[in-house]
Write a structure and sequence with these properties.
alpha/beta; single chain; 242 residues; five-stranded mixed beta sheet
């Protein structure tokens, strides 16, 4: 996953650096904090509790609030929608029938998003990047839920989060879009099971993001390895929730 992609005009070049040696590095000296605010208010209480337990196992008691995370999510949605539709526009014009119908309709709708929205979203992204980089002057790693709730069934249209009904497909990314928006390295680790929702027949796995500053993938690996060592993060056989 490292190294510049010559086919990507916006890929930043960087040296290829092995991270496997970091797995045994432990977390000594790392400043680890839990994301509060948006990342707790937008997730199921049971998911938040599992993230807190994982943070406690790491000895992480600090919290940070990623500023304007909700706006970042909205801006990310606009940028992804515009760029995705433009990427697929040639094929949409030539072979629209080959696209899955729901995806095709969404891509076609996204082609008419006003250009001013896209420009403003890109301007906001630059400001948001500066705000988050300032946080990494105080902490090394941030922990946050990976999704607002456990996964929904294949084909399920709606889901509930904190008693609010919403569309499942566009909203499962509530927690990740503000992070991927500015290209932060992330490892998602399983941290337990949760099932206290009316549409869940049984508990399902919950994931947690381990987030670091750009070019600090090693820190993500160190924390993930420590969680595995502590028994907080472990492989959950499919038969346990099938």
């Amino acid at each position: 996953m490292q190294g510049a992609d010559p086919a990507d005009p916006v890929c930043r070049p960087g040296p290829v650096e092995s991270v496997s040696g970091a797995l045994a590095g432990g977390i000594s000296g790392l400043r680890i904090a839990r994301a509060s605010g948006y990342f707790e208010q937008s997730a199921e209480p049971g998911v938040v509790q599992l993230v807190r337990r994982a943070a406690e196992a790491l000895g992480a008691t600090a919290c940070v609030e990623i500023p304007d995370a909700a706006l970042a999510r909205a801006a990310a949605f606009i940028i992804t929608a515009v760029e995705g539709s433009q990427l697929h526009l040639p094929n949409l014009r030539k072979r629209a029938e080959d696209f899955e119908p729901l995806i095709r309709d969404r891509l076609l709708a996204n082609t008419v998003i006003p250009s001013a929205w896209y420009v403003q979203a890109q301007r906001f992204r630059r400001r948001f990047h500066r705000q988050v980089m300032a946080l990494f002057e105080k902490v090394d790693v941030i922990l946050a839920p990976a999704t607002p709730r456990p996964a929904v069934k294949i084909g399920q249209e709606n889901m509930s989060v904190r008693g609010v009904e919403m569309l499942a497909r566009p909203n499962m990314g509530l927690m990740t879009q503000p992070i991927s928006f500015i290209g932060l390295p992330v490892i998602t680790v399983p941290i337990g099971m949760y099932g206290d929702l009316p549409d869940l027949e049984r508990p399902m796995p919950v994931g947690m993001q381990v987030i670091a500053a750009p070019w600090n993938e090693k820190l993500c690996f160190r924390v993930a390895a420590e969680l595995e060592k502590l028994g907080v993060s472990k492989f959950i056989p499919p038969e346990e929730f099938a």
